[in-house]
Please model this.
Amino acid sequence: DVKVTQSSRYLVKRTGEKVFLECVQDMDHENMFWYRQDPGLGLRLIYFSYDVKMKEKGDIPEGYSVSREKKERFSLILESASTNQTSMYLCASTPSGGATDTQYFGPGTRLTVL
Amino acid sequence: RKEVEQDPGPFNVPEGATVAFNCTYSNSASQSFFWYRQDCRKEPKLLMSVYSSGNEDGRFTAQLNRASQYISLLIRDSKLSDSATYLCVVIFTSGTYKYIFGTGTRLKVLA
Model:
């Protein structure tokens, strides 16, 4: 059974703070993804990684960076949090990035930036 | 035009009813299709894949219409526990495989 965990379920930060969101998967998946989900906008891809130390920008990378030093761990970094980054952040992983691979999601981190 | 479009709903249906949702996609090169279920304040979870020939899993039936570029989800004999948001997901190749999520259709099954 695939398990994807995220470091926090709820997080409250102040504008300008540096924020780290961590995601860990235990199934040796190659690919990992960070999304944010906002009402009416659905899931939007921030960054993804298909291998250790590799990363690709998604649709909305501005204001974010990522780190993948180990295969099982993918971190999302908000260098200087802003109120428009208040959102639900979802991490996901897939085995190999094939067309039939389903995505397995972590429980999400609900971030509020004050 | 959005790459993947869904009616946001909510669809309010009584228990035992049959309900169907559609999801349209714009990229004719789309290769794979899925339905996910998302409960309030929870993560999306895979409900079922959608195959070209159509597929059924208990009360749930998924179909793909490539000519008209839509997928559908039919739920028979609705249960209260079916209340959730249903997301369609389309995968196509753009260098790497790209997952496009619809914004979801909200279903409320009423007692």
Summary: Residues 19 and 78 of chain A are 5 Å apart (CA to CA). DSSP finds no helices and eleven strands in chain A. Chain A has a mean pLDDT of 93. Chain A touches chain B at residues 33, 35, 40-43, 45, 50, 56, 90, 97-108, 110 (CB under 8 Å).
